[in-house]
Each structure stands twice: as structure tokens, then as C-alpha cells.
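Support reply, case 0932

Customer input (verbatim):
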Amino acid sequence: MSRLVSKEYALPFALITSLFFLWGFARSILDVLNKHFQEFLSISISESALVQGTTYLGYFLMAIPAGLIISRGGYRRGIVGGLALFAVGAFLFIPAESARSFQMFLGALFLIGCGLAMLETSANPFATELGDPQTAPSRLNLAQAFNGLGCILGPVIVGGFLFSSRDAHIALPYSLMGAGVIIIAILFLRAPLPAIGDNVGASNAKSEKKSPGKTLLALLSSRHFMAGWGALFSYEIAEISINSLFINYATADGGFSRQGASIFLSFGGLALFMLARVAGSYVMKYIAASKVLTFCSASAALCALTVALNIGTVSTGALLGCYAFEAIIFPTIFALTIIEAQGEVKFASSLLMMTPIGGAVGTLLMGLIAEKVSLSTSFLVPAIAFTPVLFYSLALARRGKSSAK
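Our regenerated output:
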């Protein structure tokens, strides 16, 4: 059995996984901000959806420029650049809070989204390349488990701080994150990162270097790559929208206080999310990734539908089930799709990192349905969004069987 991480890449892999923790922490705080801004700035659920919408718009607009940067300058430049953008956005929370300006907060979150896009565009493919391509899905799921740890700590730390007092200052945790990110950027400037190329799928790649335009056209013309892109986009609709309205659902239909809901999100949903990614990394050593993906996407859709039916504690338990079953979906699809990049992993990664904009769409739809109908009914959005992922996994399984003949 191949090692998940080659021995010579153990240290770089450890450094990269620290970034997975960072953006897990940062993205999970958005779910706390969504509820906090509804009260702090007296805005509606659909208006607060702009918290996610603006952040993931940064992902969408920055993804391709990030791919060009790391294609020309390498992973280190992409990582340091992403950390710098994140720090600037975090420090902008200070004047935004002083002015009590939702627009300034959104501007800061847009910059943070741009920074996170650069980090994810760099770190996700880098993790897939640190070993045998056949173990890439398991390796990326392992790295993404540290993302889950960041997701757990974000709501409980920042949510506990914000919801403990009406006078809590949101600028404080973001300023601390900004200072921490600067330190991490300095470490990456000095860290010995290997100058590895686009190994995943490179065996079928042409030796000459393509222009960005030709690379984009080739990827857009790849049926399998675009199927993976569509599955990721649909998954992001489901995952991000569930996170965004978790605290609203827990306080309205689940009977939790605001602080209790943030703790429930951390040690309930997001803890299951992290543990499921670790388990998924292990299971996919023995069971084909497409089969695991089929089971998990079908189960996640069923759980979201159960939440929408609003049957008391059963629905609350199903909400936790969404986190357990959705955990392996993103890293598994990413790793399987990046194989179709034909040696253009860095640019392909930038296209895949445009997909979180789906979360903005899902959050807005859920917010509108929650206001017009009910919070529980809004979970029909993720229930439907998990379905294309199921179709994608079934297509992968059929493709695997046909190639084995």
C-alpha cells in the first residue's frame, strides 16, 4: 500500500495542513457573523446572507488570478500573497466597527475572501501532489481534517466571545487573527518548500507549456473536469448554506440560546465533520472513493430533507447527520477532478476554487425561504443541491467499471 505522504514531503505537508486549519477557522466564523450582524446592525436574515455572499464573491473573482500567480511564481508566492490579503481584510474590521458600517464590514470580508481563495488555490493541489496520485483523495481528506478542527474552534471561541455580551467588539478577534496571519506569512517566507511541478495527471500531459488561454479552453472542454466542477459548485450550495443558517435554526427551532447554538455548532456538527474526514481518509484506502462518495451524498441529501420536514429532535439529529456525511465530499471531488487537469494542476485548482460562490447562492435562497415560509423548509435547498453530487458519484462508479473491463 502506498504511503499517504512521501517521507521527503512530511514537513511541507505539516506546514500546509496549518493553512487548512486557518481557513477552516476563518470560514466558520462567518456563520457566527451572520447571526451577530442581524442583531448588531439590525438587518434581516436575507440581508445578512451578504456576509457569505461577499466573502465568496472574493473567492470567485480571485480564483483565476490566484491560479496565474502560482503558475508563474509557485505555491510559496500564492500562500504568502493570500496571507497578506487576509491580514489587510482582518485589520479593516477596526474602522468598520467604529463606523458601524455594514458596507465596510463587507469590504473587509471581500478582501479576506480574496486571500482565502489564494490560500486554497495553493494548498489544495499542493497537498494532492505530496505523494502517489492514487492516494491523493485520502491525503487531501487527511489535510482537510485539520480544516475541520479550525471549523470547530471558530464558532465556540468567537461565538462565545460575541454572544457573551452585547458590548463585545468583533474587531478584537479579527485583529488578533490579522497579527497571527502576519507571523505565519513570515514563517512561510523562510520555510523549505519543495519546488514540485504539476504531478497529478501529468503522465498524460503534453510536455510543452500551454498559454493560460489554451489551458482554460482545454479544461473547459474536458467533460470529466467540468462534471467535477459542477458537482463541487452544487456541494458548496449545500454545505455553506447549512452552516450559514445553523445558528438561526438552532435558536428558532432547536431551542438553543445564541451562545449554546454556537457551542452546538462547534462540538456537534463541526466535530462530526472533522471526525468524518479522518474516518473517510482511512476508509478510502480500502473502498473506492466513488463508492464512498455515492453513499455519503445520498445520506446527506436524506438528512437535509429530514431537517426540512421539521420533526422535532429527529430533524435536529438529521442536521448533525448532514455534517457527518458531507465531510468527505469536497476533498474527494477535488482530488478526483484535479486528476483530469492533464498536468495543469495549478490553473485547474483556481477554476475549482471559484465554486464557493455557490454558497452565496444557497445562503440567499435559504434566507428568502426562511423569511417567506420557515427556517426548516429552507433546508430543501441543500437537500436538492446534494443530488447532483450523487449523480456525479454514480457516473464516476460507472466510468470505473467500464475502464476495468
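We compared this against your earlier run and they match. Two observations from our side: Confidence is low (pLDDT under 50) at residues 198-207. Residues 10-40 form the longest helix (31 residues). Please reopen the case if you see a mismatch on your end.
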